[in-house]
């Protein structure tokens, strides 16, 4: 596997079950296409200072069935623009999972993640070892292995480069 | 060792003697279907040409495109998208279905719900073709793989079996059954799996009712839903089928990851309160809550049986003055059948506004609610802003419940009007 490990702070923990990602930017902003405008709208309901606090390399954490509903692409586009490089959740909703993996956005399911980390802890997503490490606290938990196609899509950097690589 | 219907369909599609849940295979979809939508089909068509050098799809009969959103177009930009779609289909000789109704319903009407077939779409509500023993999955942007290659990579999903028992009481509909399933089993109960419906209770449901349940499967986390098709479903699907395949069925000793028994006897009407499709409640607990608008339609409801029960509720009665009842038959075929049966006349005389088949009321293009307003809806989703202002509220319920609520201007139990 040539997937690059991620290392960064936990920028936010979405504790809500069945979290609807559209809420990240708010439904009224979902059709905004300008990435700066979208990024300004992101997280306003959760932490209005998010944009000032987040750093490139930061990682998001979610609860069970993250991405439930009819997820759209703009919320995570906004998050990536702000520097978020990956997402770890207790579990993911399939539609959301597929959509973001096809964008080349690294994500891992990690049962127990909510008990492993607190906001702003430094964590490492180690694909080779198959674990999330909490570097702040010196603890770790296993992640669920990726399906081969998902792994290849992340390695390639998204759906289009994946299809070009494996044609 | 037995196999599920999903495993059998994927084995054939992968050209293998058998596959089991967890296997990662390359499978050839029998049909690749999509509707035109900005950022989706227009992007796929462009990417096919520019990224992959595909000027024409081989085997165009494997593809189908529907124009069912933005119907009728209300801006030059919307019409431009439809032109891109029409041109691509004409150049590629790919069948195009325009203004025939909501694609997931029309797909069944025009033969893509072939029992035993494997179908992919980007939209998850295509799962309703599972009513006819078709394995139909929404795979989001990965549909591009199906546009540029013959086969797609897929991990064979596990299956959750739901055995239905008993029979629905009058005024309780398949829509209530589905939301009851979400409440009983949980919004993640079938996550990344196939929801297979079986048991004697399935026979008491209509084909239209099963289309409702299978079509909403994603709200249990399922990749799709499927039914082992009985005679009624085969009688509908086989004469229309575009390809000849033998229907397949789950073996008695197939392996399921979980089995649920759900009783239809005694089931009451339910309502799904905002802001998520996981919030099923008993309708009686919300009866009397004022609502200003109602929507009966979408790929999840709006079929003849929905219009029939709405007409039964509204016959000789009136929609409450000031309440806006929008009724959208799911397809033109359904609209014509409802007209022949006299249902349209009853609904119009009761004060309903009837609109032609389109996805637009459901996905929020026609979205007129302002802050503080509430709707009862048979649409697919009740998230904030789906029908207008993010500060309005949507209560999902059956067609019968929408009709009853229209009379009272408040959430109402349909059973007292039957």
UniProtKB/TrEMBL annotation, chain A:
Keywords: Lyase. Coiled coil: none annotated. InterPro entries: Aconitase/3IPM_dehydase_swvl (IPR015928), LeuD (IPR050075). One of its GO terms (molecular function) is lyase activity. This is 3-isopropylmalate dehydratase.
TrEMBL record, chain B:
GO terms for molecular function: iron-sulfur cluster binding; lyase activity; metal ion binding. InterPro entries: Acnase/IPM_dHydase_lsu_aba_1/3 (IPR015931), Acoase/IPM_deHydtase_lsu_aba (IPR001030), Aconitase_4Fe-4S_dom (IPR036008), IPM_dehydratase_rel_enz (IPR050067). One of its GO terms (biological process) is oxoacid metabolic process. Keywords: Iron, Iron-sulfur, Lyase, Metal-binding. Heterodimer of LeuC and LeuD. Pfam families: Aconitase (PF00330). The keyword Iron-sulfur applies. This is 3-isopropylmalate dehydratase. Residues 89-283, 287-409 form the Aconitase/3-isopropylmalate dehydratase large subunit alpha/beta/alpha domain. The keyword Metal-binding applies. PANTHER family: HOMOACONITASE, MITOCHONDRIAL (PTHR43822:SF2), HOMOACONITASE, MITOCHONDRIAL-RELATED (PTHR43822).
